Amino acid sequence: MLQAALQRRRLSSQRKPWLSLGLEKVGAGQQEGLEERAGRFRAACCRTAEVMVREQAVRSKEAMKAAMAGQLGASLGLAGGRRDWEDPTFFGWNKWKAHVPLHSHTDEDSALRFWFDRSQACKEDAAKALWDDKALPEALKSARQWTSDLPYTQSLSGDWKFHLAPKPEEVPKDFVEPAYNDGSWGDLTVPSNWQMHGHDKPIYTNFVYPFPMTPPYVPSENPTGCYRHTFKVPQEYEGRRLFLEFQGVDSAYYVYVNGTLVGYSQDSRLPAEFDISNIAAAGEECTIAVQCMRWSDGSYLEDQDMWWLSGIHRDVLLHAKPQVSISQYQVETNLSPDLASAELKVKVSVESSESEPAKRALAAYTVEGTLYRDFAEADTKHKPEIEARLEKRPASEDAVGHAANATLKVLLNQPKLWSAETPYLYTLVLTLRDASGKVVECEACRVGVRKVEVKEKELLVNNKPVMIRGVNRHEHHPSLGKAMVEENMVADIVLMKANNINAVRNSHYPTHPRWYELCDLFGMYLVDEANIETHGFDPGLHKVKNQLTWFPEWKAAFVDRGARMVQRDRNHASIVLWSLGNESGYGPAHDAMAEWIRAADPTRPLHYEGGFARTSVTDVVCPMYTRVFDIVKIARDKNEKRPVIMCEYSHAMGNSNGSIDEYWEAFENTHGLQGGFIWDWVDQGLLKLGKDNKKHWAYGGDFGDMPNDATFCLNGIVWPNRSPHPAVAEVKYLYQPLAITAEAEGIKIFNRFYFTDVSSDSLSFTWSLSSDGVELGSGSVSVPNIPPRNSALLSHASAPWAFSRQSAKGETFLTLTAVQAGDTRWASKGHVVATQQVTLPEGRKGGTPERRNESKGMSSGVPKVRVEVKDGRTRVTSEDDSVQVEFDNATGTISRWTVDGTDLLVRGPFPSFWRAPIDNDKGGGETSYIAKWAAGGVNRSFLVKPIHFIENVFGKARSVVVSAWPRAARALLRAEAFVLNMSYVARWKLAGLDRLEIANAETAVLSQPADHAFSQVRTQLRLEPSKFKRPQKGGSFTQSYFADSTPELEPSGGAPSQANVGPPSVDHSSQPIPETGHEGKIDVSVTYSVYGSGDIVADVEVNPDTWLPPLARVGLDMVVPKEMKAVEWYGRGPHECYPDRKASAWVGRYKSTAHDLHVPYISPGECGGRADVRWVAISSPDGARGFVAAPGGITRPLQVNVSEFSNEALEQALHDEELVPDEAGIHVHLDHEHMGIGGDDSWTPSVHSKYLLPPIQYKYSIRLSPIRAGAKTDAAEIAAKELPKRS
Hints:
It is a single chain. The chain is of the alpha+beta class. The protein contains 24 helices and 62 strands. Helix 10 runs parallel beside helix 11 and helix 12 (555-569) runs parallel beside helix 13. InterPro entries: B-gal_small/dom_5, Bact_Beta-galactosidase, Beta-gal/glucu_dom_sf, Gal_mutarotase_sf_dom, Galactose-bd-like_sf, GH, GH-type_carb-bd, Glyco_hydro_2.
């Protein structure tokens, strides 16, 4: 269908080659000039990049007069039957050529003042960022702020009149006319997206187009926004040329001024500028009307993984330029090989209006330049010193018509260089003078002197192979949508810098122009990416020629998007790579883009992942989600001379980013690997009013949007309000600029910076020594100056912790922390930059006892116990009746644990092998767990609500309610190819691990020791999935959504660089599945040793069927009274951590509550765990009621989770705000083993094999010790208390 549609379009264009410009409706008097223009457009589709640079922006005088007279209005508008938004060769009309931001300053001083003010952004601004509906006025404030002190630029942002028509054909008649009565229309803030104000609805999809794929056609039901705004042109603009600029509009739009059509544009992330000099006049009122279509052929090029939002979402500006003015300038800083000097080269374009004489007039104009030093080196009352003057040159080079160039050069000796570490910025001021020497105008920008190149497997910045510690960033505000605010952008950068992030990939489009200025200022490496993604045409990336890049009629649009990006952004030092777009395959259009960009800007390498990341078009190998062993393999390939920089890795969907440390072990130790960009920065949740009349973060489908990809927009390491996820601590640690390791002689500190010394001026160091969780000492430590990429050793013998270490008797840790020595633009003095905890040898001699916490002989002072078996119960009671532990013989579980008259348990402990699924647990192939589960009709859940899964690289969510018999489950699990790509949650449910119940139990009292200090009760349990009823009408498979035009999807496994690179995680369930018998079972033997002190030691042996899938956890679950909500632990913390994401969590003593331990991921699941816990105390806030849990015997530390919510509640809730604390009590999970959380991606089973729990025998021991009423004993002392030795 796709091929046929494109072929039909080709034939149509061949039959009427002028159709794209509507020439069939144009009068004979205009035919000749317009046919010439049509010919240029057709030829542009197949021209070389060198020719394509001359685009349609410069119009002939005759065509311009016709447009101004309104004679083209009928041909370009709907009145003529035209549908320009469905013509891929027609993506703009009458747009001024792209250029860097221009400000038309009156003189050098005003230019310097402007940039001085724009260079004051800092952390204090970030603190003012608003993330709710209060941000709307701030958006308008920012729009005005960005144009303040610019006498010839006026912001037109504000409240515009707005009407939403259901389709272009139904826009109000004559609404573009100034006299039209818009009194019945409402107001809409510009900039904003109209869906964020109740018009239409937001739609979220990952790659699926939200309309039938019949390119270039879009639905006839095409919501069309009609805007009107009236303003007065300042009298001061008299005699100047007037330009109307739209910095960003989604998706396609016509612009009318005073009833006259002035232009048309597509590309929602780049500006369009229209010359309205002959329509608007100084001192008079002017009416703008905009007709904006939600869908256009341009939408096929903008299939990024984000919300589909429409309207004027960036600023609208009115510029007044002199009749002769600077129209473009290109800055290059060509550094010598040794970096000792740099040639500053500035190519300036000067243009005149058509009313001015052409060549003769321009030759009389001259351009000169002055380079000033950084504002930080100047008194705020004075302008900075001059670094260099660029000699005056006439505007006489390459003169064509009304345009000419002047090239200025100057040699800088020992220039200060720009990098993300040291973002030194000069200020360049260009001055245009007329023949009399009078200043006509000035243009200015900040300039960073640096060079970027690729050599021998390295991306070099100023000759250094900088490590990319990056994130992908969408422009996203939970209340404003795509509209940006100054303080919010500053907040993003400050938070990134504070967490050691040094690079951003602008995914997947050019961002707001202010973003680049801020990245220059703060220091951030950028990948600037063209606004192109056509993922939906070939989501499996195996139908290469499905992609639009292969169709000639789309080539010009591809090149235009790349070229205009470069023309706007080229002067920013922060941009180190140009990107050709994202997930759009690879073909001729990409080659044309690359050719144009390389010719226009040879100073930067190119980046493009499409075509599997290693095509000839890219200068860096930039795969996404490739497994560690594969990127190492690429880097070690002797034939590959390019560096490997992952454009996306560590998919941060919910509780994720597991094993990210393994990537960094490879990055830091493999030549040719230079880091990557985490996917992604922020959860793209939008605020939506909930049933409780409060606003909460919503995801795909919450607005009734169909199709949608549900929670797949929630991939950030920060929430929508920029609160950090727990994983940010892991990222900050792995990205930190210091490597601190323990050596035999002392502590080694390696400076990972490339351009910055570690010195007392920049960083201060502190230390802390602890033993068994008790701090023995702390203080500051002096560290010698460490040059970049060098190290220093702090000797143990002379270190300040040497004395404190002598008193260490147990497990001993040294924590070293580096903090800011002073304030910076992005952080305050004392901000933690780097930290490391290292293990020191224990102070005491001898090893750990074979069985911890047990005395070698008989106990003294411990009450004796007695045992009674009666009425199906086994009771163990202390001789003073202060302790009673009761077992239910039928279930083999503890039914009551009472100490001093207080119940410490509501339910449990019960063996547990299941967790509330996280997003990564739900990842599986398209051909596996959804399709085959449905085909097999397997029901593995007794859930109140449907189960929502995110599957495959495209994240299509579907609601599933299905059923089948056990034999179907076994059949599915036997299919090896199916199982390896099947989601963990699907395998767990197929095996029934989510609903295990006791099928058989035996309870027996074992012999007691002679002193009756304890009694042992052994329970033998067989756990099997609960019985269920077959649905009366059979199973059902509900597809929440399918677009009729959905193309063939990617098979499981995916393409090498795109999804499931390398072999999947090893699945240990290799044993044959029995054809008959039980569906799957787990035998558990628990020997409880009950002491008269109230202590209980559970020795557990687990024997699962060997064909079962990897287990989610192996441990004990229990519910304790809800009053016992205080939690203290000695283990890793303070933040959430799991077996494969704990590198940043230090061992120590921490306190919290069950409420605060919960992590409010927007889509709930397993969360709040703490790893390597030596002991945990769960008690009432006053400490009068509770117990301490610790591993017993030689069992290693526990994974602990304490929550107000049950697994069932966490699984069933679609949003965090739906969770209600369980009235039954607090849920406690004490895990001997817990599966990793994964995160290499979220659409395949991605937990690394060493963090999987194979279905093998497990043995462990857990001790529960009561906190006695009135006792002042510390929890650590309770955990360390010795008990009588057991045999």
